[in-house]
């Protein structure tokens, strides 16, 4: 069924962008990226964006992309769904773009006076899509347009907020995250 195939491909293609945020939550801590600096009377990014969390997130996204690339042919064989392999630059665009989007979101949150951990509906759920997709299109143009068809992009825009809300709720219940968003 075409719609199921599109959903599977969208989820698969976005995994290297989904996992960095969760890895950052698990690995976060240490020196904040903004080094405590403020802009005006507000923190530039806040203590929630650290070097360690960011590095761990990007490494986790790249590692997952590598793993998925190794198993893609077998998965495609077994399911009949043509799940994509990841070019290195595509993996980098997805993983680094996700972290960059999250950092940009914190920058915007601080500018709008929101404290660390405050929610920003919409931005919280889609920040990493908004940066990872254009960055991937920039770094691995051909790969991007082959994998991210209009249908896949539509599924990503619908699926991502749902996944984001549920995984964050789980992380909150498990005590890994301070807020359920
Ligand atoms: N984290 C990190 N580095 C990142 C992103 C996240 O260390 N680049 C860790 C931090 O410990 C952070 C936690 O993951 O507190 C949750 O991430 P997130 O919800 O994005 O940060 P918040 O603490 O909610 O801060 P903000 O309001 O800036 O989003
Ligand atoms: Mg948060």
Tell me the layout of helices and strands:
Elements: H1 2-27, E1 38-39, E2 42-43, H2 51-79, H3 88-111, H4 123-139, H5 141-147, H6 150-173
Antiparallel strand pairs: 1-2
Magnesium ion (MG) binds next to loops.
What does this structure look like?
It is a multi-pass membrane protein. Its main location: membrane. Catalyzes the formation of CDP-2,3-bis-(O-geranylgeranyl)-sn-glycerol (CDP-archaeol) from 2,3-bis-(O-geranylgeranyl)-sn-glycerol 1-phosphate (DGGGP) and CTP. This reaction is the third ether-bond-formation step in the biosynthesis of archaeal membrane lipids. With about 180 residues, the protein is mostly helical. It is about 70% helix and about 0% strand. The chain is built from six helices and two strands. The chain has helices spanning about 1-25, 50-80, 90-110, 125-140, 140-145, 150-175, and strands at about 40, 40-45. Strands 1-2 form a two-stranded antiparallel sheet. α4 (about 125-140) packs across α6. The two termini are about 35 Å apart. The mean pLDDT is about 95. The chain binds cytidine-5'-triphosphate and magnesium ion (MG). Cytidine-5'-triphosphate (CTP) binds near residues 49, 50, 53, 54 and 102.
């Amino acid at each position: 069924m075409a719609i199921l195939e599109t959903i599977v491909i969208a989820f698969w293609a976005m995994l290297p962008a989904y996992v960095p945020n969760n890895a950052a939550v698990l690995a976060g801590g240490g020196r904040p990226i903004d080094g405590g600096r403020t802009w005006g009377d507000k923190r530039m990014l806040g203590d929630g964006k650290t070097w360690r969390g960011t590095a761990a997130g990007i490494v986790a996204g790249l590692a997952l992309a590598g793993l998925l690339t190794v198993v893609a042919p077998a998965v495609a064989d077994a399911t009949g769904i043509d799940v994509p392999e990841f070019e290195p630059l595509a993996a980098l665009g997805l993983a680094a773009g996700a972290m960059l989007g999250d950092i940009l979101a914190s920058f915007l949150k601080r500018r709008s006076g929101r404290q660390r951990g405050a929610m920003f509906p919409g931005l919280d759920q889609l920040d990493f899509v908004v940066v990872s997709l254009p960055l991937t299109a920039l770094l691995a143009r051909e790969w991007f347009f082959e994998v991210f068809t209009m249908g896949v992009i539509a599924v990503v825009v619908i699926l991502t907020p749902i996944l984001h809300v549920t995984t964050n709720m789980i992380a909150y219940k498990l005590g890994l995250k301070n807020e359920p968003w």
